[in-house]
């Protein structure tokens, strides 16, 4: 591991200590709370949609969220460790067999629906063994 990789790993750990990044994969429905500045005011806006792609590249990691707004598909790419993200919530887990869900761009309505993954529980598992 070279010096730059070590620095990025330490910096990412420091950022995760400030704001926890949940484990999510493409197919999951996520709600991203984004800081929006309007003039002098700053507020938090929620952006909820399906994660269709994830790029894992250390500090440069990002993910793409797609939602349907007023009948039109809208995609937004968020940097995972970006300062504009207040928090990320996983609303539901999706069951998919692809890493990139770009095929959802051509699908509408029921065809674009993703099956829910019921095998993964959202509650933390207990650690006591019987």
Short synopsis of the structure:
The chain contains one helix and five strands.
Beta-strand content bin: 35-45%
The largest β sheet comes out as: 5 strands, antiparallel
Write down the secondary-structure element order: HEEEEE
Q: Classify the fold: give the CATH topology of the domain at 23-109.
A: SH3 type barrels
Structural class, from helix and strand content? mainly beta
Query: Which sequence of strands runs across the widest sheet?
Result: 4-3-2-1-5
* CATH architecture descriptor text of the domain at 23-109: Roll
State the shape: globular
Give the low-confidence spans.
none
CATH top-level class of the domain at 23-109:
Mainly Beta
| First and last CA, distance | 41 Å
Individual helix count = 1
Radius of gyration: 17 Å
- Helix fraction? 10-25%
Number-wise, the strands total 5
Mean of the pLDDT scores? Answer: 90
Describe the model.
The protein is mainly beta. It has a domain at 23-109: SH3 type barrels. The chain is built from one helix and five strands, in the order H-E-E-E-E-E. It has one helix at 3-18, and strands at residues 29-38, 41-55, 62-69, 72-79, 85-92. The protein has a five-stranded antiparallel beta sheet, with no helix packed on it. Strand 2 and strand 3 (62-69) form a beta hairpin. The longest helix is centred in the N-terminal third of the chain and has 16 residues, at 3-18. The radius of gyration is 17 Å and the shape is globular. The model has no long low-confidence stretch (mean pLDDT 90).
């Amino acid at each position: 591991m070279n010096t730059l990789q070590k620095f990025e790993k330490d910096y990412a750990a420091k950022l995760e200590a400030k704001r926890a990044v949940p484990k999510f994969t493409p197919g999951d429905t996520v709600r991203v709370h984004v800081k929006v500045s309007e003039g002098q005011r700053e507020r938090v806006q929620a952006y909820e949609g399906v994660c269709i792609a994830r790029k894992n590249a250390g500090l440069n990691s990002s993910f793409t969220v797609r939602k349907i707004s007023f009948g039109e598909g809208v995609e937004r790419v968020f940097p995972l460790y970006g300062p504009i993200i207040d928090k990320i919530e996983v609303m539901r887990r999706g069951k998919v067999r692809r890493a990139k869900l770009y095929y959802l761009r051509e699908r509408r309505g029921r065809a674009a629906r993703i099956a829910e993954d019921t095998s993964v529980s959202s509650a933390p598992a207990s650690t006591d063994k019987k």
